Amino acid sequence: MDENHQVQAHNLLGLKTQVPKRKDTALTRTLRSCCFIPQRYILGVMGLLGVCNAYTMRVCLNLAITQMVNRTKSGEAHFDPYACPEDEVIGNASTTVLKPYAIFDWDEKTQGLILSGFYYGYAATQVPGGYLAEKFGGKWTLGVGLLSTALFTFLTPIVIRGGGATWLFILRVLQGMGEGPTMPALMIMLARWVPPHERSFQGALVFGGAQIGNIFGSYMSGILLADGRDWAYVFYFFGGFGLVWFTLWSLTCYSTPNTHPYISKKELNYLNKNVTTAENSSLKDPVPWKAILRSAPVWALVWAAVGHDWGYYTMVTDLPKYSHDVLKFNIATTGTLTALPYIAMWLSSFLFGFICDLCNKKGWHTIKTGRIIHTTIAATGPAICIILASYAGCDRTAAMVYFVLSMALMGGFYSGMKVNALDLAPNYAGSLTSLVNTTSTFAGIITPYLIGLLTPDSTLAQWRVAFWVCFAVLVGTNVVYCIWADGEQQWWDDVRKLGYPPGWKHGTLIPDENPEQPETVGLASKKESEDL
């Protein structure tokens, strides 16, 4: 039994917590005296940078690929009567921006397949990543995963020039596998480091790194690719950023407070006293998968997540291509404008969260109603905006305003379906989140490939069809969510306390228990459920 489980066992038995004695050296005493910032906040900042790093490596190809592919075609050129003018115009004749490093002749279908490759690997390692983080600790599960992605990113130019599209697709799958454990490992580390009353702030801090990564990745990619520079610089920059982050992460962060060599004694005692339910996973009942998979609110959540990811990945993966190929922004402008929607989403997510919490606190609506309202805003609002953007034609200002507004409204997902797993299953939120994320990630696999099929010539009319498909998915999945969503803890999350529903005929969820006579729980267990 490791140090943290010893502490947990003492807490559960009502004994005085005995923090295992750690070896004190001159170095650890010096470091402890120098580190006046609480280590859980250092973990929060490094977690934010880790998520930011993960997303920059995920999205950098989306912009770089516009400079890798030579769109000059032999034979008769496709005529698009709705084509927008280029940024560079001399007199009445448009000039072609030189792309000296555009050495690949990949059609839109091939590009879509390459962009989707990441999500094959990402979906495959979500659940195993959570298991490895529980068994070996979140520090190395997350760290080694992102280290591998950083190395693959750094080697991307060599791999592409050596093996072309096939090798790049394989490399993207491997990159996705490295990033798959990121969210499960971070959730486990935050549960072990952050007291319940601090988790909202720390969660917003850490997971806000996703939008910061999208902003930073898009903006820096635009700068690095401007003036016809080699696209390889993008991968060297973000791969190097990942290697620097891993070094700092290895030196400053640890899986649990009791394994941290230079955490202050005051903070360690505080965390051991207040974080008591985060590490009792070995004492919980098995994950009730047969009840989860039969739960209508769970499948409503899955459908809502599919709609969210479809719309989100359409924007993340294909907005740079649309801005460059259809609206004809130059590459530096494309990078800057692609960052604007993520800034809007990041800021609006805090506003939606404040409004939702205020309405819940005032009793103006129930948790269920709040989740449905914000999910509906975040699904139907963007669906309408992207259609308006496509019909704005070559009015580039109007199109980008609609795209920015679309992502701003999508920020409502964070106070809607994104936190609904905590409502339904506070005791099994990790397992439920892995199920939802794994399923919805397939949207990231399908959308780039499907858009590549729908836009072979990357014309405005073809993209309009792709946006109508996105509209249908966002609205359709939201209807399912509105019908079957729930905001209450489900019976299977704590069957000892809540019991089985009438007519349950699928066996017990707890070993050696009769479903007709479920065990009751003691006051301590009830209190733990309420705290969660």
Descriptive overview:
One of its GO terms (molecular function) is symporter activity. This is Inorganic phosphate cotransporter. It is found in: Membrane. Keywords: Membrane, Transmembrane, Transmembrane helix. It comes from Bicyclus anynana. With 532 residues, this protein is an all-alpha fold. It has two domains: 34-71 and 102-277, MFS general substrate transporter like domains (Growth Hormone, Chain: A, Up-down Bundle); 287-500, MFS general substrate transporter like domains (Growth Hormone, Chain: A, Up-down Bundle). The protein contains 23 helices and two strands. It has a two-stranded antiparallel ribbon with strand order 1-2. Helix 10 (209-225) packs antiparallel against helix 15 (331-362), helix 14 (296-326) crosses helix 19 and helix 14 (296-326) runs antiparallel to helix 21 (460-484). It is globular and about 65 Å long. The two termini are 24 Å apart. The model is unreliable at 1-21, 72-77, 88-96, 276-283 and 515-532 (pLDDT under 50).
